[in-house]
Amino acid sequence: MAYNASTPDRFPVDNSLCEACGYPLRGLRPEWNCPECGQPVVASHPRHRPGLAWQQQPSWRNFARTWWRVIRRPRESFRKLAVGSDLWVRDRATRFLSLNALLAALLLSVIILVFSRTYWIAGVLTSGLQVMVTYFVLFTLTGVEVLGVVYFSRRRRWRISRAMASEVAGYASAGWLPASLIWGLGGSLVFRATVATARTGRLLLGIYPLRYLLLFVVFFLGLLCFELLVYIGVRQVRYANSPCPNTPNSPWVVPPGRETPGSQDSET
Ligand SMILES: [Zn+2]
Questions:
Q1: Interval 208-220: pLDDT, tens
Q2: What is the pLDDT of residues 88-124, one digit of tens each?
């Protein structure tokens, strides 16, 4: 109904899927509804993915805007994510991740520095090292997450290539900043509380297991900020349609097991 007849692209094409349920839309008309879930066919048109501000034009302002948007409205943001196997799409996602990892690492070190009140030179040197270590740890965690997403997508027959998994994880890295806030504040509080308790002599036996248990809880809560965003992102792109599905090496094939039941031609 909302279909704009002047849209030049033919839709659906052979490998278009319903973005809500993954039903193959081949042979259906744009003004119809998905036979599986009832969502209008045209709602899965790639024009509904104009891209985030950072995807359109990377700048400090658009970094802040995209970050805020992904944190505030993750579902809507990933619904608008421009997807594709093009190099620039991946490159921008990686740059977004780099900035988030760097800012998160800096934030964590500043919090630790403030809480630990170490000597100036020693503190700053340690902080520099911490920033580097945290930066690489966050990059590694994001990389591991990408492998996990690819693995689960194959098992569940979602159409998420490795490039798309990297893209989702890249923008979900907006969650690393709140994560480091939780790690920094939570970790410092746990140390202070357990050291203070140790000084008074109470709970001395149970102090180390308790400390590590609490630190683990803090680590898990921080990680959850990132994981939740990845989860929401994956759900919004698992059947995403690319604006250019027929480019060479395109991952936009219909996953096995999701072919059209009675194969008809979409030509009118
Ligand atoms: Zn559907």
A1: 777 888 899 999 9
A2: 778 899 999 999 999 999 999 999 888 877 667 777 7
Q: What is the Å distance from ligand 1's center to 22 Cα?
A: 6
pTM of the model: 0.84
Q: Alpha carbon 10 to chain centroid distance? A: 30
Residues, CB-to-ion distance under 5 Å, ligand 1:
18, 20-21, 23, 34, 36-37, 39
Q: How far is the CA of 106 from the centre of ligand 1 (A)?
A: 44
Spatial contact of 91 and 250, defined as CB atoms under 8 Å apart: no
Q: Is residue 242 part of a domain?
A: no
Co-location of 201 and 228 in the same domain: yes
Residue 84 lies in a domain: yes
Q: Does residue 35 share a domain with residue 69?
A: no
Question: What's the pLDDT tens digit per position in 218-251?
Answer: 999 999 999 999 999 999 999 998 776 554 445 5
CA 238 distance to own-chain centroid: 12
Distance between CA atoms of 79 and 91, rounded to whole angstroms? Answer: 20
- Domain of residue 22, residue span: 1-48
194: confidence class by pLDDT, cuts 50, 70, 90:
confident
Say if 27 falls within a structural domain: yes
Q: Would residue 4 count as lying in a domain? A: yes
Same domain for 228 and 167, yes or no, is: yes
**Same domain assignment for residues 80 and 136:** yes
Query: 28 CA to middle of ligand 1, Å?
Result: 12
38 Cα: distance to centroid of ligand 1 (angstroms): 6
Neighbours of 225 (CB within 10 A): 20
Residues 109 and 103: their CA atoms lie apart, in Å, by 10
